[in-house]
Amino acid sequence: AQSVTQPDARVTVSEGASLQLRCKYSYSATPYLFWYVQYPRQGLQMLLKYYSGDPVVQGVNGFEAEFSKSDSSFHLRKASVHWSDSAVYFCAVSATNYAQGLTFGLGTRVSVFP
Amino acid sequence: EAAVTQSPRNKVAVTGGKVTLSCNQTNNHNNMYWYRQDTGHGLRLIHYSYGAGSTEKGDIPDGYKASRPSQENFSLILELATPSQTSVYFCASGDLGGSETLYFGSGTRLTVL
Predict the structure, then answer these.
(1) How many Å separate Cα B89 from the centre of its chain?
(2) Is A66 on the interface with B (CB under 8 A)?
(3) N or C: which end of chain B has fewer CB within 10 A?
(4) Could you report the per-residue pLDDT of A12-69, keeping only the tens digit for each?
(5) Domain segments of chain B: what residues?
(6) How far does the CA of residue B3 sit from the closest CA of chain A (Å)?
(7) Min CA distance, A64 vs chain B (Å)?
(8) Class at the top of the CATH hierarchy for domain B4-112
């Protein structure tokens, strides 16, 4: 079965600093990979997704992620964070049966301080 | 923009009572999902549906039923609510399941006393 590991439960960064959130996945074939963000008291919103092609994929609000097949990773990055980036970030992988949607990691809570 | 609306936003129920959580999507998506979100567990799939009239068990279906009477509506039913079902529940919809974007509602916070 597929699985996602986000090793960092919490990350604290200063405004203007760079951010990297780690994600490792386990999947039997080539997966669809996603990053979602959850702002306080809201549902999840997709930041970006990857399936094939250029291993660096651009998303919304200046986020990008890099896929590594050899490392089974899909790390999220942002060059310069803003206080409004404070949220919980989820890495997700498609279920083997696509109709079952996504399998999510536990999430990383990001706090941006001024 | 895809829209998924959940109701109620908050619900307090008593142990043993029946609870129905409702979800409506206006995007004509085939697939709909119910997840629950708990600290330490992330989001876990309870039930999903391929389309009107279909419901399928997800990873943690025990204690829950689902109903998909139409393309737009997908309900989650707790026939005999228990305190362990206290959680935040999210509904989502998508056209191609795990290969495309899922659109989430804002969640229902359920407390079972």
Answers:
(1) 6
(2) no
(3) N
(4) 999 999 999 999 999 877 789 999 999 988 899 999 999 888 999 999 999 999 999 9
(5) 4-112
(6) 11
(7) 17
(8) mainly beta
